[in-house]
Amino acid sequence: MKLSFIATKIGAELKGEDLEVSSLTSLDQATEEDLSFVESRQYLPQARASKARALIVPPELAQELEDGRSLLIAPQVRVAWAKAAALFWKEPPRPSGISPLAVIEEGVQLEPGVTVYPFVYIGRQARIGKNSVLYPGVFVGEGAQIGQNCRLYPYVVLYPGVRLGDHVTLHAGAVVGADGFGYAQEIGPQGLKHLKIPHFGTVEIGPEVEIGANSCVDRGTFGATKIGPGTKIDNLAQIGHNVEIGEAAIIVAQCGLGGHARLGPWVMMGGQVGVAPGAEIGARAQIAAKSGVTGKIPPEAEVAGIPAIPIRIWRKAVVAFAKLPDMVKDWQKLKKLWGGKSEL
Amino acid sequence: MKLSFIATKIGAELKGEDLEVSSLTSLDQATEEDLSFVESRQYLPQARASKARALIVPPELAQELEDGRSLLIAPQVRVAWAKAAALFWKEPPRPSGISPLAVIEEGVQLEPGVTVYPFVYIGRQARIGKNSVLYPGVFVGEGAQIGQNCRLYPYVVLYPGVRLGDHVTLHAGAVVGADGFGYAQEIGPQGLKHLKIPHFGTVEIGPEVEIGANSCVDRGTFGATKIGPGTKIDNLAQIGHNVEIGEAAIIVAQCGLGGHARLGPWVMMGGQVGVAPGAEIGARAQIAAKSGVTGKIPPEAEVAGIPAIPIRIWRKAVVAFAKLPDMVKDWQKLKKLWGGKSEL
Amino acid sequence: MKLSFIATKIGAELKGEDLEVSSLTSLDQATEEDLSFVESRQYLPQARASKARALIVPPELAQELEDGRSLLIAPQVRVAWAKAAALFWKEPPRPSGISPLAVIEEGVQLEPGVTVYPFVYIGRQARIGKNSVLYPGVFVGEGAQIGQNCRLYPYVVLYPGVRLGDHVTLHAGAVVGADGFGYAQEIGPQGLKHLKIPHFGTVEIGPEVEIGANSCVDRGTFGATKIGPGTKIDNLAQIGHNVEIGEAAIIVAQCGLGGHARLGPWVMMGGQVGVAPGAEIGARAQIAAKSGVTGKIPPEAEVAGIPAIPIRIWRKAVVAFAKLPDMVKDWQKLKKLWGGKSEL
């Protein structure tokens, strides 16, 4: 692939010879035929040592990297290399059409270009959009709807009636639409009993959403659990019933969102965060990994801790926390010293 | 469905006309044909704005809601509406009988009314009770036993020999009976080696248990991991080997219970709690989300934090935690001020 | 099985009669035909009460247990009983050969002794080593390689191209090789957009690795995510893209390792630990359950907390934490008392 072609596609400026490159990879793995990239100044030594034939670089590093190699100068380097990588990406080849070893119940609509691998089960009245791929063992419940160009990896489970937009990717083992965790506590003569609350609702997943392996999105009690367009969810995350997530949120692995939690658009959440049932997180808020969110987090806020507090306070508080043993010692001495003279 | 019929079934008193309602839903989603419910005073404005034809309400709100609509007055509203919802719930229709695309090994006992979907695998000598449903791809290991009226959703895996009571529900991807995480650390010439400890034990799941999607319950090393009757476990939870959980516990998503942990009856546990191996939690204790439990928690206790402490102390301590940066500053000033005069 | 035979196999010294035992189990479950074991002094009362015909014991307890029973004296008792247990362990019988209900694409290499259960899917050019077992519903992506004597339990998913060493065990629902969670944030006119970064890399899993049910190991962006020989990973763990784990690490359930994290050999990690992207943990370091690791943890260190600090400080700090409410009260009094006389 010619550098000039790549430059056009990724919106970069080519400086140097218009060479051919055969793939894109990291600085340390690049051979003399590869294109690589320099995200920031800290990678300069690696960049100089790299065998890469050409580099994608930000404008501010272009001069320092002029060593005869061709450069693709791009202001958003990470975006530029992601786009370049997409040019080199080849989806693994796949059989087209419907495997005779799949089970497709009555009334299913399959649009053209759909691939259905063996051992897929599609319940009645389900609808699969154009060019979507159902890998082995995908389960599509009755009446579920899948948009166009979706990828459902092995053993994805869609409970009945859930709806996916276009270009949705669900990784292996993801479960969409299981019952929410809702019970009514009946106080009876033999103690507490948990009556199951039936879940009449569904799940609506917007276009361009990606959900990681073995993650779970529960159906609403009434109404839908909603995941906004472009939201990306990592592996092993739990999205409770009637949660609503706005556009383009980022939810890292093992986060858990309690029922009815609401996330505005562009919320970013580190790994293993817990969000209490009904909590609200404003647009663009950032939640540090392992935090526990309760109540309301305002838009743009950055929070951390259990319960989550503003991250600038949290950062100081955890430093102080490590000094607590010393403080306690002093505090006890102080109490003794001033014991006779004060209320301490 | 007539309101008088519902009133009888849910133990409510009908006030107003004996109308027909066509379904039960939330206040905001209800149409003029629906029944809805008012759980507490905070929903009064929504109740007044709702189009619902009739409402389930607690006695103390009945008078305030007298606006011509029919009311079903019930002391435990949540229990009442859960029961009413169950009246309207229709299990999705399913084929009856055994799919020819399932594999059933020798010596399997299937009681009448069992549904086995395609791609199910049932190992030798397994036993499936009356009216139980095995959705596509359920794996039942050799000698495993499933009670009556169980629902095993797609890709539930039962390792050999595990036992489920009646009316057990396992959501998609739940794994019951994998080996516990047990190794013996052998100190050898090349360093530490982890020798696998074989797991001879099993898992016993009581009646009326529900386990969420992608949750895991490990088999015992010797003897059984036990989950008491009526216990409800959410998605992505981990139950270690030889854990024993009492009756009607509630375990929210992503909790992890270490090997040999013991939970009394009616324990309630928020999401993402960790319980150390061998820890003991007394009856009716409540563990706040994200806590880390070690040692023994007495019955009825309410705890929070890592490690878990009484929640009323924890609540104050986390408020104080956010003030730590200021306290440290004062503490340092104080040490300086009194440095010459005291041991501080 | 004769005690003398067991003694030879586990490196123990037989004291007493060379009896036959029929199985190995725990002290409380043992019958008069069984062998059991005493790991430490705290189990002496149970040992005395046990019906076990013979006991594996450490040298320091041998004398106290001389009550006529035969003893197998072994310095590393836990290692000894694990080895003895392995002698009694019988892998469940399985059909040999390839199920006609499995789908095996072109160019797949199956070495002798491989078992392929029904509903397995093996993609093109994949390679399965001698005596490996693929339980029902295992998915092997194109070009993936599986070593000898591996056990892949139901619904294990190997994405294309991943590689497993010999004697690898993957429990049900484990997913190896899904895309890492990598996006480039493109700032566009309609707000932030997350561009997917294609994942060209793979996963390399060393020999003797065991991975628990529903755990996930993501593929590298470029290059491989690597799991060292003999490492054991529990259920529901998340291993991010390009993570490198050394030899014989222990990772308990629900841990999450961010992208590019590095763990030296023999690292041990309690449950629900989070490791930040790019963090480094030195050889033999021990991370307490629920900790949050950032930056660098030196070899041999023992840490705890969020963020993780040396465990001996953390232990004191959490004690102090519970006293914070009192400290704050005193601190406020102090500020009032000395308010006129100092800067406090």
Number of domains of chain A: 2
- Largest interface: chains, residues each: A-B, 64 and 66 residues
Determine the N-to-C terminus distance of chain A.
77 Å
CATH classification, class level of the largest domain in chain A: Mainly Beta
Write the layout of secondary structure elements.
Three copies of one chain form a homotrimer.
Chain A lengths: L2 H8 L2 E3 L7 E2 L9 E4 L6 H6 L4 E4 L1 H4 L7 E4 L3 H12 L8 E2 L4 E2 L4 E2 L4 E2 L4 E2 L4 E2 L4 E2 L4 E2 L4 E2 L4 E2 L4 E2 L4 E2 L4 E2 L4 E4 L4 E6 L2 E6 L5 E4 L4 E2 L4 E3 L5 E4 L4 E2 L4 E2 L4 E2 L4 E2 L4 E2 L4 E2 L4 E2 L4 E2 L4 E2 L4 E2 L4 E2 L2 E2 L4 E3 L4 E2 H27 L7
Describe this structure in words.
- By secondary structure, chain A is of the alpha/beta class.
- The longest helix of chain A has 27 residues, at 311-337.
- The termini of chain A are far apart.
- In chain A, strands 6-9-12-15-18-23-26-29-32-35-38-39 form a twelve-stranded mixed sheet, with helices on one face. Chain A has a ten-stranded parallel sheet with strand order 7-10-13-16-19-24-27-30-33-36, with no helix packed on it.
- The first copy, chain A, is built from five helices and 39 strands.
- Chain A is flat, with a radius of gyration of 26 Å.
- Chain A has two domains: 3-88, Udp-n-acetylmuramoylalanyl-d-glutamate--2,6- Diaminopimelate Ligase, Chain: A, domain 1 (3-Layer(aba) Sandwich); 97-309, UDP N-Acetylglucosamine Acyltransferase, domain 1 (3 Solenoid).
- In chain A, α3 links the parallel β4 (54-57) and β5 (70-73).
